[in-house]
């Protein structure tokens, strides 16, 4: 991944160019809040917006794209299918519902949000059909470990183009990152800033001082130098702009390894093998 500027891209296995810095909109209100955040991001040079059916703000995302000053083809849009909708026929219905809410003719990237152990392969087969029909430019996974991906590969199905995972200095999962790279699957980070929990880490504060940058900027730059597409979430204009101010410095190889050393296998979200129990405890279906 050649890191150049905010509009730079990673090239997926099928040749589609995916902007390596995007705006995540998890927990953003589906009304004016998400519309304003997206417009602020596009004005700052972002060209990648990441949402999901589970975020309940696809309509707002669609309105933001429709009212943006940029043509649709310049904006890379991702949404995801929730685990309760992953039976084969239901996948088509869920996709159509998302597209109707977004108001789009095609989708740039569609992801399986969490892999339902019984049904995610059904969803993948349906997504393959949508991809081959030209309704989606790329298909991928979210919260899938190597064994989930291997099942798809072993069945001779389309190899996922993207795997979006919780990824930050406390959760590197280097073996999975290496596997995806070897399999030509673009790794992508959700919760790259660990929801602010890393902002007071002494080592990261030291690096922030060394490079005259914020801790958030150090982490985002680390993501990119690790070859990981990243989608930090914010609805505040100044933070959206600040998160993109990472192209005027370069972390040394030694400092990248130092950040790697913060890995403690600590998650803010569910483990991909136990998410059904995790969400059940929260009353989420």
TrEMBL record:
Keywords assigned by UniProt, alphabetized: NADP, Oxidoreductase
A molecular function GO annotation: oxidoreductase activity, acting on the CH-OH group of donors, NAD or NADP as acceptor
Domain NADP-dependent oxidoreductase: 22-263
Protein residues bound to substrate: 113
InterPro entries reported for this sequence: AKR, Aldo/ket_reductase_CS, NAD(P)_OxRdtase_dom_sf, NADP_OxRdtase_dom
Active-site residue list: 55
Family: Belongs to the aldo/keto reductase family.
PANTHER family linked: 2,5-DIKETO-D-GLUCONIC ACID REDUCTASE (PTHR43827), NADP-DEPENDENT OXIDOREDUCTASE DOMAIN-CONTAINING PROTEIN (PTHR43827:SF3)
Protein name (Swiss-Prot/TrEMBL): Aldo/keto reductase
